[in-house]
Amino acid sequence: MRLITLEEHFTAQEIIDENNKFNEVTGFYKNMVFVGNSLTDIDNERIKFMDEHRIDMQVLSYTSPVSDKVPASEAVRICKRANDILAEKVRAHSDRFAAFATLPMADPVEAARELECCVKEYGFCGALLAGQYQGHFYEEKSFFPIFAKAAELDVPVSFHPAPINPVIQDYYYTSPEYSNFIAGQFASAGFGWHLDVGIHEVRLILSGIFDKLPNLKIIAGHWGELIPAYLERLDYMMTPQSTGLRKKISDYYKKNFYITPSGILSSMQFEYMVKLMGAEHIMWAVDYPYIKQGNFYEFLMSAEFLTDEEKELIAHKNAERILHIKGEN
Ligand code: CA
């Protein structure tokens, strides 16, 4: 069965160098450098990994090519260059790769323009956004042109974690009773930045963006970043009467959101998510090269709670439909 995976990361040395001009290489970026060879590689290790795991196509994305410390004009330039480089890579292997655009959030109007260019000229499948911009979450009005453009082009926007606010890291995740290393893991990929994206999802819904853009599609990795388990509670505590929204929070979630595992091979979460969202709202993702261990194909194929039709949807048909990726035939 054809398998398309959606959260597969790439970067180019040129873009790392550009970014390093504006940043101290710490934390997240250091981590990117740490897996640097796997991130920049296309032809060797990556394709071998895909073949071994029966992955037919990866949708490539930069996790974060520009930090929010980069001034707007430079961010626009670096993102354009990043997308150009990625487009070349995809063009060279169009049977194995597709791509999400990277956008200069410092300039939302330019970002919308860049998204349009990437989709129309390069055939990109949507955009991937990471974290926030200088403490501003993306439901704020200034970012609306980006989502309006995504809805107009009928492409999804994927939300990806990034380092959280240091004040929140200190308050919630740091303790004198365990090491700072553990606090850092807890605050980031262990838990904290997933909660951060989950909160971002709810903020988007509460802002009313899906009443304005009913066809906007959001992709949430890591089985929805903790929010699916809380939908009933969110509905109960924030009803349409109090939010002023047309529908319940869970109604937007189940209609406008698409969920991927991002390499978390938890069959209990998988079964729960199929029951909650329906198989047509789930797509597959490995989170390469950060996650390389596990049998991503077998895990999906051996799910006893799925029909063959549902497996087809999750493995490739949803991605073909939502990301406008050409089908097998
Ligand atoms: Ca990732």
Molecular structure report:
- This protein is of the alpha/beta class and 329 residues long.
- It has a single domain (4-322), classed as Alpha-Beta Barrel (TIM Barrel).
- The protein is built from 18 helices and seven strands.
- The protein has a four-stranded parallel sheet with strand order 4-5-6-7. It has a three-stranded parallel sheet with strand order 1-2-3.
- It is globular.
- The mean pLDDT is 93.
- Bound molecules: calcium ion.
- Calcium ion binds at residues 7, 9, 63, 160, 262, 287, 290.
Low-confidence stretches: none
**What does the main sheet amount to?**
4 strands, parallel
CATH A-level architecture: Alpha-Beta Barrel
Shape: globular
- Mean pLDDT equals 93
Radius of gyration: 19 Å
Spatial strand sequence of the major β-sheet: 4-5-6-7
Intertermini distance: 13 Å
How many domains in all? Answer: 1
Could you tell me the strand content as a percent range?
A: 5-15%
Structural category: alpha/beta
